[in-house]
């Protein structure tokens, strides 16, 4: 599969989330979610369709293909992991965590995602086992 632009990745992620929330994906809902126009969504859908990631009939629902769903799930997984890191580990405000996750998710490769996931799991287990560790970590991250 050719490399997707950050924008096309955002469209795929938005389509996945719309599908999870509504069970079907409409152009106007993707446009509302991303704050773009319906013609922008249509252009993205055509491009994603040419890559075999979505199916769409004129005036019909948008459907992720198995290949598109796999890619969208990976993008969303990176987003969730990064959000967790920024919000729960670094204790940044939700809006900052969301914006940071959205920006960084496009540049995190599979190996970095695996390592970050392992780090988050390790820190979570350590913090649950040791109140002193959790306090030390909060104090270390609280210093500016």
What are the SSEs and their pairings?
Blueprint: H1 6-22, H2 27-34, H3 38-50, E1 54-56, E2 62-64, H4 66-89, H5 94-104, H6 110-129, H7 131-142
Antiparallel strand pairs: 1-2
Provide a descriptive summary of the structure in words.
The protein is mainly α. The protein has seven helices and two strands. A two-stranded antiparallel ribbon has the order 1-2. Strand 1 and strand 2 form a beta hairpin. Helix 2 (27-34) crosses helix 3 (38-50), helix 4 (66-89) crosses helix 5 (94-104) and helix 4 packs across helix 6. The model has no long low-confidence stretch (mean pLDDT 91).
List keywords for this structure.
144 residues; mainly alpha; two-stranded antiparallel ribbon; 73% helix
Classify the secondary structure makeup into a structural class: mainly alpha
Strand content range: under 5%
Major sheet summary line = 2 strands, antiparallel
Mean pLDDT: 91
Order of secondary-structure elements: HHHEEHHHH
Radius of gyration: 18 Å
Helix content: over 70%
Instruction: State the distance separating the first and last CA atoms.
Output: 42 Å
- Tally the helices: what do you get? 7
Model regions low in confidence, pLDDT < 50 over at least 5 residues = none
Major sheet: order of its strands? 1-2
How many strand segments? 2
Globally, the shape reads elongated
In short:
The chain contains seven helices and two strands. By secondary structure, it is mainly alpha-helical.
